[in-house]
Automatic annotation (TrEMBL), chains A, B:
Site (Determinant of potassium independence): 499
Ranges in a coiled coil: none
Protein name: K(+)-insensitive pyrophosphate-energized proton pump
Gene Ontology CC terms, in alphabetical order: endomembrane system; plasma membrane
Subunit structure: Homodimer.
PANTHER family (alphabetical): K(+)-INSENSITIVE PYROPHOSPHATE-ENERGIZED PROTON PUMP
Keyword Cell membrane among record annotations: yes
């Protein structure tokens, strides 16, 4: 039942990882840098395209300035926070100062890499949008060119995600060898923490602008989306980039980094030295195949839609990955576990499979999971399938039935996704044949299997905001007409589906990474118990497994609290969007009222003011959910102990998985139901059915683009915080703590911070604007 | 760490429970029958009131007939199902045939009691509604009389709930003595299973009628609620009774019975014989104080609102309960654990507290929890508080913001409720001072503390549908005017809040009962392991606690699946309402179209047809969620084993608690936001704000009255099924199973049934009516 004791791992640092193995890791690092080179090539290709008319360029520049201003201000705010965490990490237990400093340093590296990935993806996206729009000016034949520019822009984000993620992890292994696990924790934590803030902040920005723009523009004034008279349009387009583009890239970078971290920590325990290499080889293969995938997305004559080309890119790279991984497993790994230095003799007897088959099947599970989740998400969110058609049909009986059917669809689809992920975890678990540490490594390897598809996935996702922006620029400038405009609409619809698919796969990586990190947590707990001394080995084992026995009431309480954090986080994120959107509504209304020239087109609205409001509000609003994620595990761990903390994580993972998919798919379905009506079903634009689906879409906006995707980094941050504090919590739990008072203080402090942050966010709970003043200024529809 | 081994409990059946103890139990049974006597007196008082005009009586008779027809048909359907379960239960392991037969027999008793409680409460409610309306004809001074009739009607349901629950449990103890636990499992299962079906079926009926009536009446035709021209009005009023009244009474009866069952099973293990008596004394005291509470609800001159009187009834009975329980604990229980025959000597050394203080504090936790949850729910759903005011304010920016703010409110309030319940469980756990079985008994005792308030709670809840119906009858007949109508509106608003409070407390009882049942599950597992033989005691303990170690991937999978069942169940319930409401919409539209006389009042609509549709559809729709609840634990247990089954329950409890409160409070807040606008805020009736809140209320209907409250019996049914199959699952898990093939068959069968049921419910996923035909018949708003 027990894996290798990590004590052996920690104490083995005098034995060096063999030179041959390090050579492989160096090759991986070189491949990772190669990915950045490919990215540079793609950037040149994208920037070489035509920028369109003056008017288009002007709009693009406004978006570029807004996006850069937001990210700069966000990074400045987060830098202070990161510096604080840098020093706090130093205080946490480690074997020596080498580990402590490495952990803190690589925490910063992880955070910076996460930021860079997001920034670069966005930097290019705000330059490519106008080029896609310009390409569409050529009319009907322009689809292929426009699509290629958009997808290659995504390719840059994809290459940065995998390149930096792989390079960072390889660097840690090269520099720290056997000490790598502790340092990797720091790297993963930096990546996850920054990604969470970028996800939450970007998510609030984009949806505040979007919802605000829709409420005044479409609903109150009856002007179309992206109409230049709406002061929130530039902010809306900026939001697509800072949220869907920078936020998502950082998020997937974080998934990438954290999965690698978990695989390397567990790999060392299960496979010995080879376990520090093989989990790097798999994603390195993914880098190579991602390049193939990105270049394969050349639309062909026979394609039904833009989606066909993207699907081809995905499946081509998945199949090539699988073949190459099989080759790598059989070339690199030995045929017997006894030739690896991971498992104990007793365990090798219990598990007589071929490690090459073991590794290959585990990776296969991950790749297949990615493909199946892609199909499932497509089924529930594409306009051609029955679920969205059914939701659209309910628009005939008004907005209430649209909301209800969308919520039911989301709840149900979440269950299928959860069952699929469960089957994958269970499959990996069975590969371990009862040896828990090996089972956990199999889960982590399945995670690296998923990672082989991440390059293409990020490219697919970035495709969304770029084509959305392109349509926005075309609409605002009025310089793209006829067939060209139709091409952009088609690309936008394809982007909606790719965005939904990315979210499905992102949450799958989150569950696999979190489950695997759980293994590291288990490890950390055992090490801490070992070091605490006093008890004999058997009693330690018993007392620990009792501690995490889920049928104990205190652990059930931990579990309920973990589920509660997911609910609270989602509620806070949705509320934050409502509040920020209220401020946008107020500003846009105000501009319409004080400058009558805007409506007749003789005067331009002040776009910058709305961008400023979104920037200010989203940065203020991200504090509460962010602090909640960091502080909740500390509060639970130091108050309730090690068992409830484990159950807390389990509760968060279980509820978080379902909630994330529910929010993403409900939102995606509503978005596409609206598109169906706009395409002419049930009365088309302007009908009651259209109004009903617009309401559904507005509800879905913060679901799918703020709360839902942020749950992914939330789970990882909470897992990593727990991993970092586990040794300290164990000491407290078994009463061997010399710093009891300090820990109690930490618990009390965490609770106070959470309560304070929630209270702070409630202070301004007015959603409509600045209270009654606004109420008088804006007559209700009936009165108007 | 270990409590007394239940093997001792099982084998002790030759030692008889002392005569003195049985005397106490007989007294409890007499008190329980006394409660039924009080109910008879209340019935006489209610029926003695004036029945109003002919026209009012005619409407009341239509409601009575519809309600009786539905329940009769439901009971006929469920009788077949219950007969099947009766024989299946015989097949499950037990010590002897005496236990087997007792368990099956008392399964039927539990089911029949549950049905009777629901039926009687409803029988009186459909007779009292017209009397309340008639009383209101007296005008301004009629509030007190009307309120008294409504609340005493609820009192009958309350007395039946506590009377039958207590009588059933006492009877089992009297008849089976030491064998009681196994038989009690049957009793609890019968109560929970029937309650779940009544909850789901009644919930679908009431909301299909309500949503259908609103969609055609308020939204399409612009006629007020309860307008006699709407063919769905009678069905709507019938629904209030079969859902909110019969369904809720059965549900709380089930909570009552299951909590008692858990307390008695654990009481035997922790307190010995006294543990089979004390958990009956506490609710017996609750019966006495409930009578006081019900008679205390006499409105006084100084009362701010009807709510003041109801609050007084609740708090008076809670305080008296506490004083009497203190008395009972100090008179009945000894001052040392060594004077009880529950704990082992070793455990007594570890726990040196006074058992009387232990018991009193545990009960106190439950009573305080009930009071605090009442306040919390009130805060989030009352119109005078900030949360609902904020939701109402968002109606200025349209339905989308109303939905978003209501969802955020629900998510957040669920977290506070979960934290409160967690604190209560943790408090009880700490009372156990490390002895798990004692901690679990403390949780169960806290549950019995909650139970002391159930009599008043049911009375409060039934108040809701009665006053709602009274308003409906007044509106339809047109015979209550001026001040009298205002009195009925006030009572209706009070009813909305009492209904929300009941749901909060119901879910709290669910968590406490489920946690305590968990203890029984733990017990059952140990017994089964003991009986399996082979391993020595220490290894058994270790292997078991390993089995339920939450950090193992297979257990995490179990947990995710448990959370998934809650999501699926909620999604199915919401979808069922949408589908059934679609059929109602179609029928009502059809009547308006084919009989033009209805609209101008020259012709009466055919109310009966809508009642028939609701009856047929709700009975068909309850099959899928019902089968899911029963089959899911079987599928998980027999496929994944005992650990994942435990984690499955934990995941369901964690997610279920949050989901239930979220759905209840979002729905309650939307309902009252609508009321606020109707009372004149933000433009009043007919304004855009009103339209927005109507949409919110319609979304909230299936949230708060179908999906949300059904989660409560869902958790209990899944727990009891797990408890019943636990011995068989253990045999399978430790490989000592002689019937492996049979069990695999059971697992496969369960999976097939679940998949089949879900597929079946999807077949007819059209929500609007009969497809495209309907689409052409009903022009969209824009076209009209």
């Amino acid at each position: 039942m027990s894996g290798i004791h990590p004590s052996e791992l920690q104490l083995a640092s005098d034995v060096s990882v063999s030179g041959g193995n390090i050579t492989y890791v160096v090759i991986v690092a070189v491949i990772a840098l190669g990915a950045l080179g490919v990215a540079a090539g793609l950037v040149r290709q994208v920037l070489g395209a035509d920028e369109g008319t003056d008017s288009m360029r002007r709009i693009a520049v406004a978006i570029q300035e807004g996006a850069a201003a937001y990210l700069t201000r966000q990074f400045r705010t987060l830098a202070v926070f990161a510096a604080g965490v840098f020093f706090l990490l130093m205080l946490l237990p480690a074997d020596d100062w080498n580990q402590r400093i490495g952990r803190s340093l690589f925490f910063l590296v992880g955070a910076v890499f996460s930021a860079v990935t997001g920034y670069v993806g966005m930097w290019l996206a705000v330059r490519s949008n106008v080029r896609v729009a310009a390409a569409a000016r050529a009319g009907a034949g322009s689809r292929d060119t426009a699509m290629r520019i958009a997808f290659r822009t995504g390719g840059v984000a994809g290459m940065f995600t995998v390149g930096l993620g792989l390079f960072g992890a390889a660097l840690v292994v090269i520099l720290y060898r056997e000490n790598a696990p502790k340092v990797l924790e720091g790297f993963g934590f930096g990546a996850a923490l920054l990604a969470m803030f970028m996800r939450v902040g970007g998510g609030i920005f984009t949806k505040a602008a979007d919802v605000g723009a829709d409420l005044v523009g479409k609903v109150e004034q009856g002007i179309p989306e992206d109409d230049p008279r709406n002061a929130a349009t530039i902010a809306d387009n900026v939001g697509d980039n800072v949220g869907d583009c920078a936020g998502m890239a950082a998020d997937l970078f974080e998934s990438y980094a954290v999965t690698l971290v978990a695989a390397l920590i567990l790999g060392k325990a299960a496979f010995g030295d080879a376990g520090l290499v093989f989990p790097l080889i798999v994603p390195a293969i993914g880098v190579l195949t991602a390049v193939v995938g990105i270049y394969t997305v050349a639309p062909r004559a026979g394609d039904r839609s833009g989606m066909s080309a993207i699907n081809r890119g995905f499946f081509v790279s998945a199949v090539i990955s699988l073949v190459l991984v099989a080759g790598a497993a059989f070339l690199y790994l030995p045929s017997k576990f006894s030739d690896l230095d991971g498992l104990t003799d007793q365990e090798i007897l219990a598990h007589d499979a071929d490690p090459r088959v073991f590794a290959l099947v585990a990776v296969l599970i991950g790749i297949v999971l990615a493909a199946v989740i892609q199909q499932l998400t497509g089924y529930f969110t594409e306009t051609s399938r029955r679920p969205v058609r059914d939701v659209t049909k309910t628009s005939l009986t008004g907005p209430a039935t649209v909301i209800l059917s969308g919520i039911a669809l989301g709840l149900e689809s979440a269950v299928y996704a959860a069952v699929l992920i469960s089957v994958a975890v269970l499959g990996a678990y069975l590969l371990g044949a009862g040896i828990v540490m090996l089972a956990l490594f199999a889960v982590a390897l399945a995670g690296t299997g998923l990672l082989t598809t991440v390059g293409v996935i990020v490219a697919m996702d970035t495709f969304g905001p770029v084509s959305d922006n392109a349509q926005g620029i075309a609409e605002m400038s009025g310089d793209v007409e006829g067939e060209g405009a139709r091409v952009l609409t088609e690309l936008d619809a394809v982007g909606n589906t790719t965005k939904a698919i990315t979210k499905g796969i992102a949450i799958a990586t989150a569950v696999l990474a979190a489950t695997a990190l759980y293994g590291s947590y288990r490890d950390a707990v055992r090490t801490a118990v070992d070091e605490a001394g006093g008890l004999d080995a058997a009693s330690k084992l018993t007392s620990l497994s009792f501690a995490t026995d889920i049928t104990q009431p205190n652990n059930l309480v931990g579990l309920i609290l973990g589920a509660a954090v997911v609910f609270l986080f989602s509620g806070l994120a949705i509320n934050a969007v409502s509040r920020a959107a209220g401020a946008v509504v107020f500003e846009v209304r105000n501009q319409f009222r004080t400058r009558p020239g805007i409506m007749d087109g003789s005067e331009l609205p002040e776009y910058g003011r709305v961008v400023d409001i979104c920037t200010r509000d989203s940065l203020r609003e991200l504090a509460t959910p962010g602090l909640l994620a960091v502080m909740a595990p500390i509060a639970v761990g130091f108050t309730l102990g090690i068992g409830p903390l484990a159950a807390f994580l389990a509760g968060a993972i279980g509820t978080g998985t379902l909630m994330a998919v529910f929010l993403a798919n409900s939102g995606g379905a509503w978005d596409n139901a609206k598109k169906m009506v706009e395409d002419g079903d049930y009365g088309g634009k302007g009908s009651a059915a259209h109004e009903a689906t617009i309401i559904g879409d507005t509800v879905g906006d913060p679901f799918k683009d703020t709360a839902g995707p942020a749950i992914n980094p939330l789970l990882k941050v909470m897992n990593l915080v727990s991993l970092l504090i586990a040794p300290a919590v164990v000491k407290l739990s078994i009463g061997a703590d010399e710093n009891g008072a300090l820990r109690a203080l930490a618990a009390a402090f965490s609770v106070v911070v959470i309560v304070g942050a929630v209270w702070y966010s409630k202070r301004k709970s007015v959603v409509v604007g600045d209270g009654d003043q606004d109420r008088e200024e804006q007559p209700t529809k009936a009165a108007a």
